[in-house]
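chain below, 817 aa
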Amino acid sequence: MAQFFINRPIFAWVIAIIIMLAGAMSIKTLPLEQYPDIAPPRVSISAVYTGASAKTVEESVTQVIEQQLKGLDNLIYMGSTSDASGSSRTTLTFNAGTNIDVAQVQVQNKLQQAMSRLPPAVQSRGVTVTKGGNDYLMIITFTSPDPSVSQVDIGDYITSNLVDVISRIDGVGDVLTLGTGYAMRVWLDPAKLEKYALMPSDIGNAINAQNAQVSAGQLGALPAVGEQQLNATITARSKLQSKEEFEQIVLKSAADGAAVRLKDVARIELGAENLTITSRLNGQPGAGMGVVLADSANAMAVADAVNAKIAELQPFFPYQLKPFTSYDTTPFVSASIEEVVKALLEAMVLVVLVMYLFLQNFRATLIPAIAVPVVLLGTFGVLSAAGFSINTLTMFGLVLAIGLLVDDAIVVVENVERVMSEEGLPPKEATRKSMAEITPALVGIALTLSAVFIPMAFFGGSTGVIYRQFSITIVSAMALSVLVALTLTPALCATLLKPIAKGQHSPFGAPRKGIAGWIDRFFVGFNHRFDRTADGYQRGVGGVVRRGKRMMLVYLLICAGMAVLFLRLPTSFLPNEDQGAVSVQITLPPGSSNARLQAVMAQVQKYFAAQPDVISFNSITGSSGDQSSARGFVRLTNWSQRKRPDQSADAIARKATKDLAAIRDARIFVLLPPAVRGLGANAGFNFQLKDLNGLGHDALVAARDKVLDLATARPELTNMRSTNLDDTSQLGVDIDDSKAGALGLATVDVNNTLSSALGGTYINDFLNKGRVKRVYMQGDAPFRMLPQDIAPWTVRNNQGQMVPFSAFSSTRWTYGS
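prediction:
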């Protein structure tokens, strides 16, 4: 093979150029990320049961869905959460390497079997199935300098005008609104309903009937009479679009033309769809959107595309909206890759300098130096073909491989020079003879090293993903190195090297002047000292050989010391690093009001505003659906401005957790982001308890508390906390079915009234600024604040009389979830 290319150096160059071009073109298409897709693929199912308690959601929604998720291919485990806001979320985790699109389709097919068993309120809201989790690539928060602009104004603009645009960007998996849009709110007054003998179900029926889109057909549509001269579309009732139109909805009408309208029994408001969620940036009201990266997408390219689209749309923003990136993972990814690329370039320079120092011949040094970029670029082509990415692991593989890459070329060059020196052959003939001697050795070395690294590519799980890319990178680089050593390097030796007279071992000929003379004298001195060092090393080896038993004892002591150090070193999957951001988790006692939560958030905001290493603090309340918890994202200053140990993200998080413990009304933890995107929301690990024997909720909570107490006592564990909310006080409403039946009440009317009055009901949709939005009905705030507020709500019996809840129900305080 080598003989062929020695005679055809141009062909060797063509192959090398093709390899470099393929690699250079692949670099543009390779995803850029910190790590490969280490996290196993996940599919999430989300549903909402408005007004239901966590226990009701778990029994009516979550369990129904879980029971149908059987027989899914490659499923590892699934976990579910049900909360007091009525939300149910089930996350299914699959084996690494599973086709996430196929998994999503399988989950959707299974879910269809459960839809008919879900409550009608859940079916009307819909059940969504999404790929991946909700770990953000970036969060963009919008604020306005105009104090008259509300959070709902900002959130509605984001929901209506930006979310869809950003979602269509290539590489964006999902966009989550961290705010709320508008909805039409119908706030009922129980006294007025009783006055007109109406129930909430009557209101819902009237809205459904009069807020509807009617397809009335065409005038003169085919088949038509022969003389028909007109064809026109008929328009009739359409969806309502304003508060005033809703106020005019007719609930009752009399023969004399008098009518009871919606405004007579309810307060109509264009208000927030989600009443619990709020967002603030550095204390200023706002709203935001979280961008989730699609699987195998280029994080840097997606972030750049999102920022470019926001900049393009900014001139058209209303309310003088200002976007700010309050959380962004890409600067750390960019910095990590830049550091590795810097190390790669430094390694290349050092390799060339070392080669020149020992070869002491510019032409001989140039040959391996040419081989390095050919092999590196070719390796990028292999990474692209294998579906890998440019990440920390593949780049480290290249850094480690550089030393191996030049070995093959150096072996070829040195052996050619040896043949010329010993036999006086010209470069071309010397190259022929040299390659005949060393070709088997080059191939053998490559196979030996491949035998070491290739097995790493077959590790399973997330660990296998790490080693697979690292292994394939090194093996590919070595294989290309041998290919170049058998094709391009011999051709370069035959054309670039100068003849050496037979018997001449010194690379220096006649004395030279100027800079060349200085270089020659430097190399003469270097060779002299190197020879002395080599002689000393040989004498030292001789002494070691003569003292074999003593040296074996030293060797065993060294091995024992290494074993002790190995056992004492802490182990981890991947190290936690300073990613330029920390997150904050805030939890108040269960049952706390939104006012208490906002007061705590104000104190947390004040604390971070006073920290010199903090750029921004973005707080988000209500994202989990309750009024007693919140989360925040703290963006830190650039790493170049935080060089002291106490300015690291870990030090800042530890100090903040300690300082914020002074706020007695809440439990506050400041945490590092996870080392790998997709493996949890924060650094550390989760521990799940399972009730395998069906002991019940109380026993499970008791076991959880015991585990927490034991874990908190361990010095190596910090920030121990429960990931679920504690039980809280609940008001139970007991319906006496016997009394209700005696009073002529239908059970369905009782249930609907209670659900609509206190829990709220989604009715249908309306049009607002060209967008379809939701209509909700619920009792007005003054009529659902205290236990005694339930009694005045009335239900119509079979005789048309209004019966209050106090006539057939009672209330009691309980404790649960």
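The chain has a mean pLDDT of 87. Residues 581-672 form a domain with the Alpha-Beta Plaits fold (CATH 3.30.70.1430).
thats it, cya
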